[in-house]
Write a structure and sequence with these properties.
By secondary structure, the protein is an alpha+beta fold. It contains 2 helices and 6 strands; from the N terminus they run E-E-E-H-E-H-E-E.
Length: 133
């Protein structure tokens, strides 16, 4: 586990459930490809946004665990949405779930992008992760 420091300098606005900066002296980085709402059978779990969020974050948890990593090791999220109307739903999901995933309240930096499409027309979001080990 890397020693990660999440920073929010006073000369930047107060963030929501993310930090402006993650600083670490990691010996190894783990890059997790963008995760989408496919279950183990390869099928999309649902077209409903909250169900897709749950599957995306379950897939991230599985990828982290497969490498001996955990949520606390994440130093960067990149989140892709296809509809800006889902931003509020994403915030609701994060508000509900992130306190359990990050119990110390140290939320990794997150870049949110609205894109015209993802790899399948039924995907509503994709989340890419960088972790420090």
């Amino acid at each position: 586990m890397a020693d990660v420091h999440y920073l929010n300098p006073g000369n930047l606005p107060k963030p929501g459930q993310y930090s402006h900066i993650a600083r670490t002296a990691a010996t190894e980085l783990l890059f997790i490809a963008g995760q989408v709402a496919n279950g183990l059978d390869g099928a999309i779990v649902s077209r409903e946004f909250d169900a897709q969020c749950a599957q995306v974050f379950a897939n991230i948890a599985a990828a982290l665990a497969s490498q001996g990593a955990a949520w606390r090791d994440i130093v960067q999220f990149t989140t892709y949405l296809i509809d800006s109307a889902d931003i509020a739903k994403l915030r609701e999901f994060r508000t509900r779930e992130f306190p359990q995933l990050f119990p110390e309240g140290n939320y990794p930096p997150n870049t949110l992008l609205i894109v015209s499409a993802l790899a399948h027309p039924d995907y509503r979001l994709e989340v890419q992760v960088v972790a420090a080990l």
